[in-house]
């Protein structure tokens, strides 16, 4: 039978603009969240994490915002550069639940930086 | 410090053949994981290990076996490869929180 391809959400931004990538998570018991960056042909690379006792955390050019009320996570990239073009995944975990630190991954967002 | 390494980088198998994928980490992490990633999809957990000598099933374990004889190594075996196992396989390890991934193994089963 015919197979249906899965299409990643995409985001295109101009070089130098700020990017915001969103993620909705499902498990209200999740207490730890990570953003990963995956470039073509490479493994996921850890960007930034946040625990549920925080609602904002900043790194170098990146900020993660957590809204536990609506179970929403976002990654903000300041002054987006061509090297930021990649697929970005959010992942959630329940560290206090003894789940062997199993992460649940979202399907990802393809970020394309336009010159 | 090489982090997480995977061997081989790429492999082509015929249906029914067997092979073993090797993952090694030099960070003294207790936890190790094997994932598969298919086009347009996130990572799906195959098997994982919480320490030397222990393994457990993940989300999609069928058709795979694993072994953790040494803390630094986690092996993923395919006893009888099927075309549905064509995928990119990633190994990861973790200590207290985030997981760190290897570069992946591309497997094509014909």
What is the arithmetic mean of pLDDT of chain A?
87
Largest inter-chain interface? A-B, 26 and 24 residues
Strand content of chain A: over 45%
Residue windows where pLDDT falls under 50 for at least 5 positions of chain B: none
One letter per element, helices H and strands E, the order of chain A comes to EEEEEEEEEE
Helix content of chain B: under 10%
Structural class of chain A: mainly beta
Strand content of chain B: over 45%
Number of strands of chain B: 11
- The best one-word shape of chain A is globular
Order of helices and strands of chain B: EEEEEEEEEEE
Mean pLDDT metric of chain B: 93
Q: What does the model show?
A:
The complex is a heterodimer of chains A (115) and B (110). Chain A is mostly beta strands and 115 residues long. In chain A, 0% of the residues lie in helices and 49% in strands. The termini of chain A are far apart. Chain B has no helices and eleven strands. Chain B has strands spanning 4-7, 10-13, 19-25, 31-37, 43-51, 54-57, 65-67, 73-78, 87-94, 99-101, 105-109.
List keywords for this structure.
heterodimer, A: 115 residues, mainly beta, six-stranded mixed sheet, four-stranded antiparallel sheet, 10 strands, globular, disordered N terminus, B: 110 residues, seven-stranded mixed sheet
What's a quick, concise take on this entry?
Chain A has 115 residues and is mostly beta strands. Chain A is built from no helices and ten strands. Helix content of chain A is 0%, strand content 49%.
